[in-house]
Amino acid sequence: MPTYAVLGATGATGANVLKLLLKNPSNIINVYVRSKPKLLAQAPDIASNQQVKIFTGNLTDTSLIASCLRDTDVVFSTVASNDNMPGTHIAQDTAHSVVVALMEIRMTEPSVKIPTIVWLSSASLNPHFYGQEPAFLHWLLATSFSYVYTDLAHAEKYLKMHQKWLKVVLIQPGGLVEDKQHGHAISLEKVGNFLSYADLAAGMIEVAEKGGYDWQGVAVVPTTNDTAIEWRVPGRMLKGMTFHFAPWMYSLTKALHLQ
Asked: Model-level pTM greater than 0.90?
């Protein structure tokens, strides 16, 4: 029976990965979240589901994360943020903790098989992907989510420092929206239009099941044109751009409860 770990199962991507994994009764799933009540509010049925074991803790609890990752085949790392917060380091914290946790496992069990990490990244970090879009559009995205992408870039640089013993697949989608599954494909060549989180999750699972994508940037692309347009994106980009050029505005808007 395949055993999976899902880090960040209350987020949009992680929740969809968990939902799809649960469709196969032979899957064993370790779920790591910061809030168990939030997880159970989203998926109340898993409280009594024997397929699922829930681990609750913060991103720096490497011993607990090691317990979650031990004896798994694949780790879906879906911890992410769309909030362009100055100085954000959630991706770096996740990368550091996963590496330390796996090192801990290796020290206690030297012959253990290390799971493949399916890491949620972004097409905006892959020159081959973002080179296909207009330069101005890439600038807009890179500026609007500058702190998010900087965090991701540092995290992935850290992961690559352990490339000799780690197996990581970099999932690099384009724009993501809340919508149902419409159909997806795996691509090493291009990024499509808006992709639903449900299709992204399905693509991540397909990549994990197929294997052979270690240390490659992999896009999950839509196979139809009927994915819903996310009309909140322009507002989110405007807010992110504001925080890029005026970082102090982030603290101000938070203090005024405007976000």
From this structure: yes
